[in-house]
Specification:
By secondary structure, this protein is of the alpha/beta class. The chain folds into 2 domains: about 60 residues; about 200 residues, Rossmann fold (3-Layer(aba) Sandwich), CATH 3.40.50.2000. The chain has 14 helices and 6 strands. A 6-stranded parallel beta sheet has the order 3-2-1-4-5-6, with helices on both faces. α8 links the parallel β4 and β5. The longest helix is centred in the C-terminal third of the chain and has 26 residues. This is CDP-Glycerol:Poly(Glycerophosphate) glycerophosphotransferase. It comes from Streptomyces qinglanensis.
Amino acid sequence: WVAGEAARERYRLAEVGVDDKDVVEVGRPQLAPIRHAGARAAGGGDGLLTVLYAPTWEGFTDDPGNTSVLTAGENIVRALLADPRVRLLYKPHPMTGSIDPRAGAADRRIRALVHRAGAGRAQPDPEAVAALEEATRALEELTRADLRQHADEVERMLHQQAPAPGRAQQTAEALRRWEEAYWAARPAGQHQVVDGPRPGLFSCFNEADVLVSDVSSVVSDYLTSEKPYAVANTSGMTEDGFRRAFPTVRAATVLGPDGAGVPGLLRTVRHPEEDALAPARAALKVRLLGPAEPPSLVRFDKAVQALAREAEVRARHLREDGPDAAASGPDQARVGVLGEDGRP
């Protein structure tokens, strides 16, 4: 199963033994929480653009194009902070600096820039802060695990109990309320470093008007919103070469290490009529993630149901013909083939 046409094509070109007729395009059902661009007016009604800078980490290689944090991050952040009508959310990859200490040092400098720029801005609303504290208590009550402080993943799994009926829905609703309370408690226009698992990346996507990132899955996930985005080119390639090398860049504004393209990026967000890349984003979304209709969750569910029916057909034939027939080949086992309606 693949997300869209691009992944199907990769299997076809790679010739690794995957028959094209066996490839099923199901989209990316995980992206369902990400809201489309039309669900929120740019600027959120207060005239401030929310820019999410979510660079990836340095990785295990010395490729200068892995992360923009090292060579472009500070310039990009300075350019964003220079615009008084921008609210910056900086969400670095949690592994930033884990391999290259220089990336960790650059990350700390970027954090300092954001904190200094945010000092003295509007103070949080006490009622909103109290609502966030209440939402936090409710969420922690549902997600708390009574384990020792340093329990590892294996110990957690050993002690994990089957959740009570309805708990998953309750937790999802509690998380939704927490995210709403979290953003409501942020002072208007406050620049912010977003750390930790909450709020998650998708929640930040929904809060943002535009994304700045690197070549990573962050960009392809964000693409489902069809909102504008930029990718930092720290690879040393020309812009044309960079666009050809990485499919997700083809619908992006490309920023160089000096961050000089930031004002132009912000202008296209504020003036959608100047956003020449909007058609490219829509087309690339379909190519990478599949069509919007039917929704990915529907296509995924349909594929699961079809696979289950096929398994039932195979199991019935195995019962009728016996396991020896199955071992001697598919012709003898009479493995079922589903028709267009998904039935044998």
